[in-house]
Amino acid sequence: MTAVPADRDRFRLRGTQVTRLETFVDAAFAFSLTLLAIVVDDLPHSIAELRAALRQVPAFVFCFVLLATFWSAHNRWSRRFGLDDARSNVLSLALVLVVMLYVYPLRMVVSGAMGFFSGGWAPFGYTIDAARAVLDLQTMFIVYSIGFGLLAWLVWQLNAHALRLADGLGLDARERAATVTEIGIHVILCASAACSILASVAALLLVPHGARPGWIATLPAWLYALLGPAIGAYVAWRGRRGPSA
Fold first, then answer.
1. 3-state secondary structure 183-225
2. Residue ranges of domains in the chain
3. pTM score, two decimals?
């Protein structure tokens, strides 16, 4: 009997053939990354321009890793379940649409974070009207969080759809538990985006118009720093429950 291929988590791979939709999703992610290229307008023509371009590398790397994380989640779903039905196609195409729009707020937020942490060495990548700084910042954070939340929600829905078809797919207890864990991770991502949006709304309500942004105005961005500990604790908790959970 031929052994069924499995991933490193011993999840049997049912999607061993690459579909046209998967190819399209991969191409869309690749194209989105080109929009985050180090030099947007032209190649550098002098050493000074090269140095200026290289200052954008940290932001590009962070954006690359974040997009690769969502691509990896979709690729993992495709390999594990091999679904090619109408709902899976609609959700995957929606993922493509969102990721191609998400690159714009993604680049702005990440560039701003890199500029802040580097003391201005890395370019901020955007300008803010001082008279409406809080409004501009919260608009950027809200658009970013909507995109981030939608990407996480779509991956969540893809895995939830697969879990509903568990019997037909022949998922065993370990595979069902792994799918539940995957869903839980993306629920946490969605929750973080929702919390960030609420923090932005609070900042718009609490900070007077025209006032200088303080810690309240930047709180929506700092909330994402809690994702690492939250996901780590959740995965550890799920691991303690065992494959039957």
1. HHHHHHHHHHHHHHHHHHHHHHHHCCCCCCCCHHHHHHHHHHH
2. 20-241
3. 0.90
